[in-house]
Design a protein that fits this description.
23% strand; 4-stranded antiparallel sheet; Jelly Rolls
Length: 188
């Protein structure tokens, strides 16, 4: 899926080319391990993932914690930094080679002034981001690590083999050894 297809599907429109969109969309490529937005950088854009996996991490004491993974056909950004245009307290990294489409902060702000569709899509994307975050928080409060892993495996099985075990463990909030036991139990 491309951003144009995503735009049309979410808004139930039929734009035939990127020229019909209310903002300029640029392509960007990032190699595996390349930082997309680093700590203390101001987020310049929102991204749509055509191919690849992006991880979002935050520093915690002497380590990093994985906040979330984003996959193909999803929007991603260091959202707080993007919305406030203040330095980011999280880092976005390409976990695999990534092909992204991006909309700059300035282009989006201009589109919001002139386009009801841009406003509608922005609202929908922010609502989905909030629901995703709220569901993740609830999962941490009410589900075991095994249940969280099982859910991740069911919803993202296509991608899970491309994510290192230690990163999955950090995402689940457990040690890699605990994840190995969970995986062994589920596979037996």
């Amino acid at each position: 899926m491309t951003f144009l297809e995503f735009y049309n599907a979410i808004l139930n429109t039929s734009c035939k080319s990127y020229a019909e969109l209310p903002y300029l969309v640029n392509k960007a490529h990032f190699k595996k391990g390349e930082v997309i937005t680093g700590y203390n950088q101001i987020e310049p854009a929102v991204y749509f993932i055509n191919k690849g996996i992006v991880e979002l991490v935050v520093k915690s004491y002497m380590t990093e914690k994985v906040l979330d993974f984003f996959f193909e056909n999803e929007m991603v950004s260091s959202l707080t930094s993007f919305l406030t245009q203040n330095p980011s307290d999280v880092q976005m990294t390409a976990l695999t080679d990534c092909e992204l489409e991006m909309i700059s902060f300035e282009a989006l702000q201009n589109a919001y002034k002139n386009s009801a569709d841009a406003n509608k899509l922005g609202r929908i994307v922010i609502e989905h981001a909030y629901i995703r975050k709220a569901n993740r928080e609830k999962d941490f409060l009410v589900k075991t690590a095994e249940e969280r892993y099982t859910k991740m495996f069911k919803t993202q099985s296509k991608y899970i083999s491309n994510i290192p075990i230690n990163k999955i463990a950090k995402y689940l909030g457990i040690h890699p050894e605990s994840l190995s036991r969970i995986r062994k139990k589920l596979n037996s």
